[in-house]
Amino acid sequence: MTRLRFAPIPASLPATVPFTGPETLERRSGTPFVARLGANENGFGPSPRAVEAMVRSATEIWKYADPDNHDLRHALAAHHAIAPEHIMIGEGIDGLLGLLVRLTLAPGETVVTSDGAYPTFNYHVAGFGGHLHKVPYRNDAEDPDALIAAAREHFARLVYLANPDNPMGSWHPGSRIAAMLDQLPQGSLLVLDEAYAEFAPNEAIPRIDPQDDRVIRLRTFSKAYGMAGARVGYAIGPVDLIAGFDRIRNHFGMNRMAQIGALAALQDGEWLAETRRQVTAARDRIAAIAQANGLTALPSATNFVAVDCGAEGDFARRVLAELAGLGIFVRMPGVAPMDRCIRVSCAPAPELDAFAEALPKALSRARQG
Amino acid sequence: MTRLRFAPIPASLPATVPFTGPETLERRSGTPFVARLGANENGFGPSPRAVEAMVRSATEIWKYADPDNHDLRHALAAHHAIAPEHIMIGEGIDGLLGLLVRLTLAPGETVVTSDGAYPTFNYHVAGFGGHLHKVPYRNDAEDPDALIAAAREHFARLVYLANPDNPMGSWHPGSRIAAMLDQLPQGSLLVLDEAYAEFAPNEAIPRIDPQDDRVIRLRTFSKAYGMAGARVGYAIGPVDLIAGFDRIRNHFGMNRMAQIGALAALQDGEWLAETRRQVTAARDRIAAIAQANGLTALPSATNFVAVDCGAEGDFARRVLAELAGLGIFVRMPGVAPMDRCIRVSCAPAPELDAFAEALPKALSRARQG
């Protein structure tokens, strides 16, 4: 920059593009993917009622969305049997995480997360000048004891935990999460990312008073509701904290069709139940494919399965690269020892057929490599 | 907040909700508006090709959007005959303004704008701890000389100017804007908001080298393209500055249907031309309605018209309130002497018919008030 320098925090951030989408990989290779199994998207798709509602509203896209998100917020409040003042809707969990970090973290303050957990949260913490302290996973799961200990030691403002976990698919009982709240040091807020909650067993979901000021929960329409491209997420938390978002959020930032589609999706409980059944079957199928290739699928409470490739991270990275060359988009954990796994999203039969066909070839090539 | 305090900057911000949408007003009054003429939305609507593209892609909303915005970015580059590296796509101009402020402004640094200009820009400046210096309008237009003088005096990092202007509809020749760049102090960046550029005469659009590091331009699909609810805007600027957005933006923040719809809208030049004709006719119609009521419509290079109500701000505020009571949603400038006007968005005939019917009643009631 010859003329204008960046502000100090952005100036300190890496200039590289931090996220690579599958479309970029396709453009680089010149070949579209046959199966898109890398982003935990839900290929079973959105409720037909959501599609219908979006289609019906398409010609009205000339109107800004209601900045208050009134209808969706009230429907979510009824869904969770809480007051609407406990809910903030935003542009996906990613957007809400950025706002939450900005709202609560002063530059230089510390945040605790697990080494290998959701990178977008870390991106936002760095992006607002926060300091990240990472604790290791334990038995392929985030470690509540280690998170709490680190929060106490480092006076963490925020403690991030995803339950169920991404990228491993593991989960803790809700009672364990609730117990964390009593152990959390004064001044720390638990950021409980429940993006995959709808796929998890009921016992994984803690019972938390929405006014409890020790925790904020994050939910999304991107996973179980099959609307990742719509960008609708929501936070549940104490009224004062939720109201704080209004000080800084982009009030007219929501897409109007997304708002309308999410409302219709929420009202289609049957589709959600059917999605859950299909995801469960797809998890079993991925496990069977893994087993047929001498690999081990880890238990999952999400719409993806971590498949242990049975060797060091370098081998799993070769498997992933070979799969990509065969038209299969998957991703994998970035940190050892979880990086012995590849992470495969649940999907309809044709995509899993393609994965089943490609996996033995990819393994064979990776073993030769 | 008993437990968690906000970070210092958000803690210093007002707790009130800064923006009130028409839906909130409707819920308060219990009556839907008959004519939505307050947000400069484009009721002539989006291109049917954009609608068709969005409808066709609705079932694929389970996919995240391409975080690189490749196809739309390249189409915009071709449209403007510049390299795609000069373009950053984001969630409307509002979203891009927030990112720009965050990217360039350190807390406590100064920004110059006009008193009465776009409030969302001011919201973002305050939201990132910036200091706002405002200069008065001159003859119902933003005053380039005053902006430049203030930028020099206060070492402004950013200088905001909308051309054509909102809320007055006035415009400066592009040559005047280009001349500002040579007068701009070292270290200042001109933020040139061209949200209404497609409605303006060609002479209003400056010819600027996209690599010129003294200016960033902002455009949108919300106005002429009739897609306000989609949330698609873009910035044009020097490569280093544009690349800076990648350090902080929400990479997976775009709605996938919006991306696809905007691309189709861009390719429908005929619809845009027809929209321009309809907007021009609607401007004339609003002026005629004003004249028939003894009021003066100000010249406009946008899709709205500032109508001078011929008295102090208090009278215009009463007219606005009476119009709302009659089902007509309009807004008005917030600062004297521009607040003698109400601001009426161009719209199809039925909405302007309703405005024409309501205005004499509203004026009469306001005069009695």
Indicate the radius of gyration of chain A in whole angstroms.
21 Å
Q: What is the CATH homology-level superfamily of the largest domain in chain A?
A: Type I PLP-dependent aspartate aminotransferase-like (Major domain)
Main CATH class of the largest domain in chain A: Alpha Beta
Counting H and I runs of at least 4 residues, what is the number of helices of chain A?
Answer: 13
Share of helical residues of chain A:
40-55%
Average pLDDT number of chain A = 97
- Work out the oligomeric state of the chains in this entry: homodimer
Spans of chain A of 5+ residues with little confidence (pLDDT < 50)? none
DSSP summary, beta strand count of chain A: 12
First-residue to last-residue Cα separation of chain A:
43 Å
Cofactor (chains A, B): pyridoxal 5'-phosphate
GO biological process, one term (chains A, B): L-histidine biosynthetic process
Catalytic activity (chains A, B): L-histidinol phosphate + 2-oxoglutarate = 3-(imidazol-4-yl)-2-oxopropyl phosphate + L-glutamate
Keywords (chains A, B): Amino-acid biosynthesis, Aminotransferase, Histidine biosynthesis, Pyridoxal phosphate, Transferase
